[in-house]
Protein backbone atom coordinates (compact mmCIF):
# COMPACT_ATOMS: atom_id res chain seq x y z
CA UNK A 1 0.00 0.00 0.00
CA UNK A 2 2.82 2.37 0.89
CA UNK A 3 4.64 1.55 -2.34
CA UNK A 4 1.56 2.32 -4.44
CA UNK A 5 1.03 5.61 -2.58
CA UNK A 6 4.64 6.72 -3.05
CA UNK A 7 4.65 5.70 -6.73
CA UNK A 8 1.47 7.61 -7.56
CA UNK A 9 2.47 10.66 -5.51
CA UNK A 10 5.80 10.78 -7.33
CA UNK A 11 4.11 10.54 -10.73
CA UNK A 12 1.71 13.37 -9.84
CA UNK A 13 4.60 15.59 -8.80
CA UNK A 14 6.70 14.65 -11.86
CA UNK A 15 4.02 15.97 -14.20
CA UNK A 16 4.60 19.38 -12.67
CA UNK A 17 8.38 19.13 -12.52
CA UNK A 18 9.14 17.91 -16.04
CA UNK A 19 6.51 19.77 -18.04
CA UNK A 20 8.20 22.08 -20.54
CA UNK A 21 5.21 24.03 -21.85
CA UNK A 22 2.00 25.33 -20.39
CA UNK A 23 0.85 26.51 -17.02
CA UNK A 24 1.09 24.20 -14.03
CA UNK A 25 -0.62 24.06 -10.65
CA UNK A 26 -0.40 21.89 -7.58
CA UNK A 27 -3.13 21.75 -5.00
CA UNK A 28 -5.20 20.02 -2.36
CA UNK A 29 -8.50 18.11 -2.71
CA UNK A 30 -11.09 17.75 0.03
CA UNK A 31 -14.23 15.80 -0.70
CA UNK A 32 -16.76 13.10 -0.01
CA UNK A 33 -17.53 9.75 -1.64
CA UNK A 34 -21.28 9.23 -1.51
CA UNK A 35 -21.60 5.44 -1.75
CA UNK A 36 -18.78 4.59 0.64
CA UNK A 37 -19.73 7.52 2.94
CA UNK A 38 -16.07 8.39 3.34
CA UNK A 39 -14.47 11.83 3.45
CA UNK A 40 -11.38 12.12 1.29
CA UNK A 41 -8.23 14.18 1.14
CA UNK A 42 -5.75 14.29 -1.70
CA UNK A 43 -3.29 16.12 -3.90
CA UNK A 44 -3.72 17.19 -7.49
CA UNK A 45 -1.63 18.68 -10.22
CA UNK A 46 -2.71 20.32 -13.45
CA UNK A 47 -0.94 20.91 -16.71
CA UNK A 48 -2.40 23.01 -19.51
CA UNK A 49 -1.94 21.25 -22.84
CA UNK A 50 -3.49 24.24 -24.65
CA UNK A 51 -5.23 27.39 -23.45
CA UNK A 52 -8.42 25.40 -22.87
CA UNK A 53 -7.46 21.71 -22.56
CA UNK A 54 -6.01 20.58 -19.24
CA UNK A 55 -4.83 17.25 -17.83
CA UNK A 56 -5.37 16.75 -14.08
CA UNK A 57 -3.60 13.85 -12.32
CA UNK A 58 -4.68 13.37 -8.71
CA UNK A 59 -4.48 10.94 -5.83
CA UNK A 60 -7.09 10.84 -3.07
CA UNK A 61 -7.22 8.88 0.17
CA UNK A 62 -10.62 7.85 1.53
CA UNK A 63 -10.38 8.31 5.30
CA UNK A 64 -11.40 5.19 7.22
CA UNK A 65 -15.06 5.31 8.20
CA UNK A 66 -17.16 2.34 9.34
CA UNK A 67 -14.28 -0.04 8.55
CA UNK A 68 -13.96 1.11 4.93
CA UNK A 69 -10.95 3.00 3.58
CA UNK A 70 -9.47 3.44 0.15
CA UNK A 71 -7.20 5.11 -2.31
CA UNK A 72 -8.01 6.41 -5.77
CA UNK A 73 -5.85 7.80 -8.53
CA UNK A 74 -7.29 9.82 -11.39
CA UNK A 75 -6.15 11.11 -14.74
CA UNK A 76 -8.80 13.56 -15.93
CA UNK A 77 -8.99 15.72 -19.04
CA UNK A 78 -10.95 18.98 -19.07
CA UNK A 79 -11.95 21.68 -21.53
CA UNK A 80 -12.42 25.13 -19.97
CA UNK A 81 -15.28 27.47 -20.84
CA UNK A 82 -15.11 31.06 -19.60
CA UNK A 83 -18.32 32.52 -18.20
CA UNK A 84 -19.36 35.66 -20.09
CA UNK A 85 -20.39 37.78 -17.07
CA UNK A 86 -17.53 36.84 -14.70
CA UNK A 87 -14.18 36.61 -16.52
CA UNK A 88 -12.36 34.84 -13.65
CA UNK A 89 -14.95 32.03 -13.36
CA UNK A 90 -14.57 28.97 -15.58
CA UNK A 91 -16.63 25.82 -15.86
CA UNK A 92 -15.49 22.60 -17.44
CA UNK A 93 -16.68 19.13 -18.29
CA UNK A 94 -14.24 16.38 -17.39
CA UNK A 95 -13.61 12.82 -18.51
CA UNK A 96 -10.89 10.52 -17.33
CA UNK A 97 -9.62 7.24 -16.00
CA UNK A 98 -9.63 6.09 -12.40
CA UNK A 99 -7.97 3.34 -10.38
CA UNK A 100 -9.68 2.66 -7.05
CA UNK A 101 -8.49 0.49 -4.18
CA UNK A 102 -11.08 -0.09 -1.44
CA UNK A 103 -10.30 -1.96 1.78
CA UNK A 104 -13.02 -3.49 3.97
CA UNK A 105 -11.96 -4.47 7.50
CA UNK A 106 -14.63 -5.90 9.76
CA UNK A 107 -14.28 -7.66 13.09
CA UNK A 108 -17.22 -9.73 14.22
CA UNK A 109 -17.55 -10.90 17.82
CA UNK A 110 -20.16 -13.17 19.33
CA UNK A 111 -20.74 -13.95 22.97
CA UNK A 112 -22.28 -17.37 23.65
CA UNK A 113 -22.45 -17.86 27.43
CA UNK A 114 -19.21 -15.98 28.00
CA UNK A 115 -17.44 -17.81 25.19
CA UNK A 116 -16.12 -15.15 22.87
CA UNK A 117 -15.75 -16.07 19.22
CA UNK A 118 -13.76 -13.65 17.11
CA UNK A 119 -13.85 -13.56 13.33
CA UNK A 120 -11.92 -11.13 11.17
CA UNK A 121 -13.09 -10.27 7.69
CA UNK A 122 -10.83 -8.35 5.33
CA UNK A 123 -11.45 -7.72 1.68
CA UNK A 124 -9.67 -5.62 -0.90
CA UNK A 125 -11.25 -4.42 -4.13
CA UNK A 126 -9.22 -3.10 -7.05
CA UNK A 127 -11.12 -1.44 -9.87
CA UNK A 128 -10.32 0.52 -13.01
CA UNK A 129 -13.07 3.01 -13.71
CA UNK A 130 -14.15 5.90 -15.90
CA UNK A 131 -14.77 9.42 -14.61
CA UNK A 132 -17.30 11.84 -16.01
CA UNK A 133 -18.25 15.11 -14.39
CA UNK A 134 -18.42 18.87 -14.24
CA UNK A 135 -16.32 21.45 -12.42
CA UNK A 136 -16.03 25.14 -11.68
CA UNK A 137 -12.84 27.13 -11.05
CA UNK A 138 -12.42 30.68 -9.86
CA UNK A 139 -9.12 32.52 -10.05
CA UNK A 140 -8.25 34.65 -7.02
CA UNK A 141 -5.33 37.04 -7.14
CA UNK A 142 -2.61 36.02 -9.59
CA UNK A 143 -1.88 32.43 -8.62
CA UNK A 144 -4.62 31.10 -6.30
CA UNK A 145 -7.38 28.94 -7.80
CA UNK A 146 -10.44 27.69 -5.92
CA UNK A 147 -12.67 25.05 -7.41
CA UNK A 148 -15.40 22.49 -6.98
CA UNK A 149 -15.90 19.30 -8.99
CA UNK A 150 -18.64 16.72 -9.18
CA UNK A 151 -17.53 13.38 -10.64
CA UNK A 152 -19.30 10.13 -11.25
CA UNK A 153 -16.91 7.17 -11.00
CA UNK A 154 -18.25 4.06 -12.75
CA UNK A 155 -17.06 0.48 -13.24
CA UNK A 156 -19.00 -2.60 -14.22
CA UNK A 157 -19.56 -3.56 -10.56
CA UNK A 158 -19.25 -0.30 -8.62
CA UNK A 159 -20.26 3.32 -9.03
CA UNK A 160 -19.86 6.34 -6.82
CA UNK A 161 -20.62 10.05 -7.05
CA UNK A 162 -17.79 12.15 -5.62
CA UNK A 163 -17.77 15.85 -4.78
CA UNK A 164 -14.42 17.61 -4.46
CA UNK A 165 -13.42 21.05 -3.24
CA UNK A 166 -9.93 22.09 -4.27
CA UNK A 167 -7.45 24.88 -3.81
CA UNK A 168 -4.42 25.19 -6.07
CA UNK A 169 -1.36 27.36 -6.50
CA UNK A 170 -0.38 28.25 -10.08
CA UNK A 171 3.25 28.44 -11.20
From TrEMBL:
Gene3D superfamilies: 2.40.160.20
InterPro entries (UniProt xref): OMP/PagP_B-barrel
Protein name: Uncharacterized protein
Organism of derivation: termite gut metagenome
Amino acid sequence: MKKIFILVLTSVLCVNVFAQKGDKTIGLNLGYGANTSNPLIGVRGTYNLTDYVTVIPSINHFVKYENVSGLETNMDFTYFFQTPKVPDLYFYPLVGLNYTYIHFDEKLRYDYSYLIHSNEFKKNNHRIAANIGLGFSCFYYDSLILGVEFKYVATTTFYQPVILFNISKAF
